[in-house]
Amino acid sequence: MLKDQLSKILSDDVSGASALYRRTLVLLRDSRSFRKRFRREQALLRLRRTFPEMAVFAYLQDRLAKVDDASEKDRIDLLLAEADEEAERVGRRLDCLWKRKRRVVTFSQSSLVMRLLLEGRERITELLISVAAPKYEGLTAARRLANAGISIELATDAALPGMIRRGDLVIVGADSVTERYFINKCGTLPLLLAARAAGAVSVVVFERFKRTSARKMRYVPRRHSPKEIVPPGYQFARIENLYFEKIPVAYADWLLSGDRAVRGNR
Questions:
Q1: Do 258 and 141 belong together in one domain?
Q2: What gap in Å lies between CA 255 and CA 141, rounded to an integer?
Q3: For residue 108, which of 225, 243, 255, 226 has the smallest C-alpha distance?
């Protein structure tokens, strides 16, 4: 039963920590399977183990730990409302940096970044984005943004950092943020280094529920199936199929959350 319920959270149409956070809250609120506290704790523990790069599930464990079964629905509704308000606050902070039309560069498919790009589409002259292999969520993001009327240029992941000189604003999301580093899809690090070299402004946007400490995080990148990136017959090599990487916060110009705007060290 638990496995079946969690499969609803882990479906392929949901990408990024923010979307998983919201879907988890809705499922915990609406499913009869999670009406008891021990069931909720069991599910959140499983999700923490499945997504060690995402701090949101530890945050949910803390926020729901002492909530009795009768008050659980009200607390979850409050958390969902707080998430929407947080995204709006991040948008207002980004507006302070994004006051004119720009060529924007982004990567992967953060639901918060997608929301901000759609809200600011009138200020985007062109959007550069890559496919985000091996899951190719960049294709889904590009299609959605193009359908909203944004001019899109789609590139390979390797080519995107070299195209950064054609953009002047880089916006990426984060799955977790600590005082020393943040975690995001592999490919974010070279993109921010290229932005620094080209003089483009780089911005990391995230909600407060993704913030944690490096001591608590202790993240170790996991290898995923080699079959996603190479055909059979490459047993002579160790295949490094990593989804996420650590990026020093100093590599970004700005880190924007709902409660603060922090300047990186350039």
A1: yes
A2: 22
A3: 243
H/E element holding 223?
A: none
Longest dimension (CA), the chain: 57
Tokens of 227: 């079959």
Contacts of 74 (CB under 8 A, 6+ apart): none
Query: Cα-flanking dihedrals φ and ψ of residue 182, to 5°?
Result: -125, 160
Tell which of 85, 111, 136 closes a domain.
85
Report the number of distinct structural domains present in the chain. 2
**Beta carbons of 242 and 187 less than 8 angstroms apart:** no
Sign of CA dihedral 220, 10, 186, 158: positive
Q: Which residues of 68-94 are buried (b: 16+ CB within 10 A; e: fewer)?
A: eeeebeebbeebeeebeebbebbbebb
Residues 168-185, buried b or exposed e (16+ Cβ, 10 A)? bbbbbbbbbbbeebbbbb
Tell me the per-residue pLDDT of 36-84, one tens digit each, with 9 for 90 and over.
777 888 888 888 888 999 999 999 999 888 777 668 888 899 999 999 9
pTM for the full predicted model: 0.92
Residue range(s) defining the domain that contains residue 179: 88-263
